[in-house]
Structure formats: C-alpha cells, structure tokens
Design goal:
- Helices cover about 30% and strands about 20% of the residues.
- By secondary structure, the protein is α/β, with parallel strands linked by helices.
- Helix 19 crosses helix 23.
- The longest helix has 20 residues, at about 360-380.
- The protein binds beta-D-glucopyranose.
Length: about 775
C-alpha cells in the first residue's frame, strides 16, 4: 500500500487520462503563511489546501491529528421518522471532543441549533457541524419524483422546485442536501432510474445544473440556500443486469461521452460537493479511483468543493476486494480524493497510524480537512453558525400555499400523454359516471415516491380526492380499489369490474407502488405486478372506454395494456399535489406536454436500450428476414421513444434553416424553425433539436439530443425557435481531456420526439479543432421570437 514514487495518479485507473502535473505548484501569491505539511514530489497534491483562506489554514495548522480525522467523520443522526434519535449524551461528548464533522439524517431548527451550539461553544476549536439530509425532490412540499421532474423538459421547473426545497430544508436547520442525482440510466430494471433525469446526457446536464442553481442560489452563505451534492460520481447508473450496486463494465468512450456530462455541467454550475458512487467501473471502485476523482474531477475539471463517500462505501472497499483491512480501505479513499466518510468511521477511526507514518497521506488529510472547513466557511457557518436555526422561520416556511401551488403546477407539467385515441381526453364536462378503479388511486404514500425527506402522506391530495374535488357538475365518481400492486384479491378485482360495468367510462389507476423503485429496488421483469395486470384485464373485459392512469417510478413494459386502452397518461409519482395536478390535465385545464426522458420498452428483454445507439454495420431493418441489428421476435423500436409525449393540440414545423452552410471549428451556427399550434387549444410543445455526425473517425450515435425548448402557444400562434450550436457540441472523446472537433458534415434534425423528426438540414464544419469539455455538457443557446 505504498505510493509508487514516480506515479502521480493511481495505477488502478479506468481512464487513461494524460495528466500534465503531479506536483503541487505554488503560485507566489498563494504561498502559505502558516506551515502545513508540504507535498513531496510523489504526493499528487492538490492546491486546494494552499489556496484556502487564512482562517482555514490557521485552523488546520492548529488541529491535532484526532481533530483532523474527526472532521472526516459523517455520522448518522437517525432515521427519517425518528430524526436525531442517535444524538445521545455520549454522541454530544464526541462533538465536544471534535470527533464529528457532520451529521446526516437529522432535522429540526431548534434541535440542530442546540447541537450546533455544543460544537461551536464547547469543542476546543469551535468548528461548526454540517447537517445533511437527502432532500431530493422536496423537503416537506414534495414535488414529483426526479424522473418526472425531467419529464417537464423545462430546467426552470427543476430550479424552482429545488429553490423551494432549499428554503424549506434550511429553515429546518439543514446545510447540505445529497442531490442532484445525475446518473444516466439506460436500463429501467435499475430501481434508481426514478431518481435521475433518464437516459440522455444533454437533458441530464441541463437538469443537473438547474438543480445546483436552485439549491445553492446566488450565494451559499445565505441562510436559505443549501449545499448541493452531485451524485453518484462515476458510472453508478449502469450496473450489470440493472442490479443496484453492481459493476459498470462500460467503455472509456461511454464513461466520458454518456455518463460524465451531467457531472461536468454540475461542476460548472458550482456544485459545492460531490458524492462518489458505491460501485466499480471495470473493477475500480470509484471511491478508490484516484484517476477519476482527484484526476479528472479535481485537476482537469477544476472542481474545488468537498467530496463525500456514499453510505459505508469506504468500508465496502473491502467487500469489493481492493482492500484487506479498514486501514487499507481508508488509505485508498483518502488518496483517491474522498474528503468525508459517510458513516463507515474508517477514515476517522482507522487511519491514524498510516497518516502518522506517511507524509503524503498526511498531506492528503490536510487537503481533505481544508476542503471540509472551506465548505463550512462558504456556508457562512464560522461567522453565523446559528443562522439556520430559527424555529419561527421553520414554522412559517414549510408547505406554504405558494409552495403547494408550485408543486401542483409542476406536477401537471410532468404528466406525459402516451396514447389518446379518438380524443378520449380531455374528459368531457357533460354529466357522466366515471369509475375510478385501482387502489393506487388512494395510495398517498406512493405519490411521495422514493426519498421523501419530511414529506408526510397526510399532506398528499390522492388521485381519488383530486378527481372527486374537481369533477364538473353532473359527473358522478364511483370507486373500487380492485387490487394494490402489493396484494392480489380476486374478489376485489371482480367487484371492481362490476363498478366499471355500471359506469360510462373508466379511469384505471395501475402501476408500481413507491416501494418498487428506488435504491435496492431493481426488478427483473418490467411488466406490471400480477395484480395490476389482472385488474386491467378484468376492466378491459367490460368493454367500457378505459383511460389508464399509469403510476410508476420507471419505464414499464405495458404494450398489451396500452394496446387495449383508449388513452394512457403516464403520471409517474406526482408529489403532494398529485390529485389536483391530474385533475388539471384530465379535464383540460392544462394540455399535457411532459415528454419521456427515457424510452419505454416493449418487453423487458429489450433493455438496456436507448434511442441514441450506434448504428452498427447492419443497422436494424424492419424486415425480420434480413440479418440486422435487431431481435428476431420483437420490433426494434421502443413502445414509446425518448422525447415522446402527445398533446391535446397539434403542431406544425416549418422553415427549418441553418444560418450558414459552413462553420469553423470554434464558431457557432444558428438553426431556426417556425412552430405553429395548428389545433384549437392553448397548449405547450417541446421543440427538440437532434444531431448526427454521419461520418467520423469513430462511429457516432444514430441521433443525439442537442437542444430543446418547451413553448406555450395559443391556437394558431406561430413562434420561431432558434438554437445556436457550436461544433464543440459534436466533439469526440480522445484522451487526456482532449475532445476532437472533426471537419465534415453535421446533420441537424428538429421535431417533436426522437422518433418524430419533422425537418433536417446539414452544416459543414470546415476545420478540425479541440475542446476540453464533454460535448453533451455544453448548452445550446435557445431564443424564441
Ligand atoms: C444512497 C445515497 C444517499 C445516502 C444517504 C445511500 O444509500 O446511495 O444516494 O445520499 O444513502 O442517505
């Protein structure tokens, strides 16, 4: 476990980055006035230590080894319903002794204020604590689950929800959230697909930066902004077989072009912390991956924030089989660049001997401590440690009518209309009997989804309540639960079919409950649970017109169900305003304009799949008798593709033109298109720009998203949408953070989904060039006239 003297970054590297500097260079104006451990040639030092404020450097110089190690310790404060339950008198003594840097799973302005007071008044150096929680899609006002938030295709909606979540969480004494989760997920068997923005790096990058802006606001030191954690750095979203925590065996190109862009975008947006993933990439656990963490993230991208491990992940390096002892595990994590150890206690408890005898490790430790203290300083905790602990503010801030209104607005915007035969929706306002069938219609907890912070199911307007409250006069709502995803009651299903028979039409509420997606909730079968399938069959047999209200945390395989339904609305899990938001869409107050951020497969066997694959030498041919890149027993197209979603209105696209036929490698070109609402209702359209590089030095995806704009149009209204792109957005990963811009044609396509391309044009890139950013992370400027 000794560092090879001539190696700057770990030999166990996934990505063959060309790293130019391994020695900490000390610019003249950053020479420390306080002596710190000096990096040796072989230390792979990070300059963040030297560039810290004089307060932080003074503290680091004054700290004992135990106090330094204590800062690396993030301890668990309790579980969500009994928050702070582990903060026993013995725990407070640890705070007094400086053995804890942060607590997670804690909350409450007053309780945390008292704890903070102990830290700043009764510990030797008065270093404040950091209080953290997974505030992922709302704190008390729970918004739709993240995959639904991405379905809005409007980054401003995510930013607004994150801002509200930050305001509420900080009012409750929290400084730090473990969000955004930006892992690209192309295999919906993986339960954590619900937590992210889906399959696409460009969409993912926009949603990532929006959340960072929303959480952190203009200044981290304001008491209503919260430190964001972009997670789970590495390739957590591609575990083998979709099984959570599993190894990602992906190519270097995929790492850089597909999985890294949202992380890069979040870094550029100023994300103050990052979390390393549990899993490994080709055998290198990211929590021990010095090349990726210290190398790519810190040295090449310039990330200067704090890095936290995932829960117990440092100790789990032993399970991975890359460390034999806790000490070895801690050394690997510290060297890789992890600053704080979430709950395993390894970095605080098992490293003393190693750092005392290895000056490089001591130097790494000082860097980690400096970054933790700098983060506390950025949050304003040294100057105003009790700014987050005002119980009056807490009482006034949570679940306000304004916050609920925003949750309702955004939830309605996240709903995706998948099918609408013969104008089945919106529902007519004339008198009729509507049977609401399915126990999910009453399941409030499910609407809160995975990660619900302080969300309370009592706050939720259920689907049934929303429909009952908003049904037009003369509409009679009947209800039968049939079965819940977690049970199978044949008699109840039969009773539900009888209620359906007596109605004019059926709203069939089926899908997954909250516990079927999320962490450690991977599924091998993407069809609906058996009870839901049986309930659907019974209801379809009545012959009544059926609208399926799909509740789910992942793309599911519903080909047969969708085939028999008149209409399908995918509602994901909508948060506290679920029922109200659904009613807004069903009765046409809001025309649905959510778009899928992930393809829906026809069957489980078709995953993993994305719209953005390489073409192959024998591109998929619809003719099954030909040897091509497709299944023999299943259409290659997904049931519903990326970017898909219907509207109550119709849209036409005209005059798609490029402002120039040619562009230099470092230039920009503007592509414009006229979009008209040709229907009779006010509605939103999501105008989508795709790109393809038809001939390059390596095969390129058959189509890639490079821009989008959600537009609201009155009937008959036309707007011109302009997208300004640069060739760097088509750059190809080479190595050493060098992205090649190749000369040649680029094709651009515009349309209403990845499978609904309405117009194409080409632009010639006249020369070659270089870029230093992941292509999909770069944002296309959009203008609407
Ligand atoms: C999850 C993280 C989360 C952490 C703390 C882990 O199990 O993977 O996403 O932030 O727990 O709750």
């Amino acid at each position: 476990m000794t560092r090879p003297p001539s190696v700057c970054f770990g030999a166990s590297a996934l990505v063959s980055l060309t790293l130019v500097a391994c020695v900490a260079t000390t610019p003249p104006d950053a020479i420390p006035d306080i002596p710190l451990t000096q990096p040796s040639l072989a230390c792979g030092a990070s300059s963040s230590l030297l560039s810290a404020s004089s307060r932080v450097r003074a503290l680091v110089a004054d700290m004992t080894l135990d106090e330094k190690l204590g800062q690396l310790n993030q301890a668990a404060g309790g579980r969500s319903k009994t928050l702070n339950s582990k903060l026993t008198p013995e725990e407070l003594d640890k705070v007094r002794r400086g053995e804890v840097g942060s607590y997670l799973h804690v909350a409450g302005a007053e309780a945390l204020g008292a704890l903070q007071q102990v830290a700043v008044e009764e510990s030797r150096l008065g270093i404040p604590l950091l209080f953290a929680m997974d505030v992922v899609h709302g704190y008390r006002t729970i918004f739709p689950v993240p995959i639904a938030m991405a379905s809005t295709w409007d980054a401003a909606d995510w930013e607004s929800a994150a801002r509200i979540a930050a305001d509420e969480a900080t009012a409750s004494g929290l400084h730090w959230t473990f969000a955004p989760m930006v892992d690209i997920a192309r295999d919906p068997r993986w339960g954590r697909i619900v937590e992210g923005a889906g399959v696409d790096p460009y969409l993912g990058a926009r949603m990532a930066e929006a959340q960072v802006h929303g959480y952190q606001g203009a200044s981290l030191s304001a008491p209503d902004t919260i430190l964001a954690t972009t997670k789970h750095f590495g390739v957590y979203g591609a575990p083998a077989g979709g099984r959570d925590y599993g190894s990602a065996d992906v190519s270097e190109r995929s790492v850089m072009e597909t999985y890294m862009p949202p992380f890069y975008a979040a870094t550029q947006a100023g994300s103050g912390s990052m979390m390393t993933a549990f899993n490994d990439i080709g055998g290198v656990p990211t929590t021990a991956n010095e090349t990726l963490v210290d190398g790519l993230l810190r040295d090449q991208w310039g990330f200067d924030g704090m890095i936290v491990s995932d829960w117990n992940a440092v100790a789990e390096l032993m399970n991975h089989g890359v460390a034999a002892t806790r000490e070895e595990a801690g050394i690997l994590a510290l060297r890789a660049g992890v600053d704080m150890d979430m709950t395993s206690g390894v970095m605080s408890g098992d490293l003393k001997r190693a750092v005392s005898s290895d000056s490089c490790l001591m130097h790494d430790l000082d860097g980690a401590v400096a970054r933790i203290l700098t983060t506390k300083e950025r949050l304003g905790l040294f100057d105003t440690p009790l700014a987050y602990h005002d119980p009056a503010r807490e009482a006034a801030s949570l679940l306000t009518p304004e916050n609920r209104a925003e949750a309702r607005r955004i939830a309605a915007r996240s709903i995706v209309l998948l099918k609408n035969d013969s104008g089945a929706l919106p529902l007519a306002s004339e008198p009729q009997t509507i049977a609401v069938i399915g126990a999910l219609a009453e399941d409030r907890l499910t609407q809160l989804g995975s990660w619900r912070a302080q969300g309370d199911q009592e706050d939720v307007i259920s689907i049934l309540e929303g429909l009952q409250a908003h049904a037009p006069e003369g509409t009679v709502i009947t209800y039968a639960p049939g079965s819940h995803p977690t049970d199978y009651d044949a008699d109840a299903i039969k009773a539900a079919a009888d209620i359906a028979t007596a109605a004019d039409r059926v709203l069939l509420v089926i899908g997954e409950d909250y516990d079927l997606s999320g962490e450690a909730r991977s599924r091998s079968d993407l069809s609906l649970p058996a009870s839901q399938q049986a309930l659907a069959n019974a209801v379809f047999s009545t012959g009544k017109p059926v609208t399926v209200i799909l509740v789910t945390g992942r793309p599911v395989a519903i080909e047969t169900i969708a085939g028999r339904a008149n209409a399908v609305l995918n509602t994901w899990m909508m948060g506290v305003e679920a029922g109200n938001a659904l009613a807004d869409v069903l009765w046409g107050k809001v025309s649905p304009a959510g778009r899928l951020p992930a393809d829906f497969p026809r069957r489980t066997g078709a995953v993993p799949f994305t719209y953005s694959e390489y073409p192959s030498g024998r591109p998929a041919d619809p003719d099954i008798t030909k040897d091509s890149n497709r299944y023999h027993d299943l259409g290659i197209d997904p049931l519903y593709p990326f970017g898909y979603g219907l509207s109550y209105s119709d849209f036409t696209y005209d005059s798609f033109t490029a402002g120039a036929a040619e562009v230099g490698a470092n230039g920009t070109v503007t592509l414009s298109v006229k979009v008209t609402n040709s229907g009779s209702l006010q509605a939103d359209e999501v105008v989508q720009l795709y790109m393809r590089d038809p001939v390059a030095s390596v095969a390129r995806p058959r189509i890639e998203l490079r821009g989008f704009k959600r537009l609201s149009l009155e009937p008959g209204e036309t707007r011109t949408v302009s997208f300004t792109v640069s060739p760097a957005q088509a750059a190809i990963w080479r190595s050493g953070n060098d992205w090649a811009i190749e000369a040649g044609d680029l094709e651009f396509m515009v349309g209403g989904s990845s499978a609904d391309i309405r117009a194409r044009t080409s632009v010639r890139v006249t020369d070659t060039g270089h870029s230093n950013a992941p292509a999909a992370a770069l944002e296309t400027k959009v203008d609407v006239q």
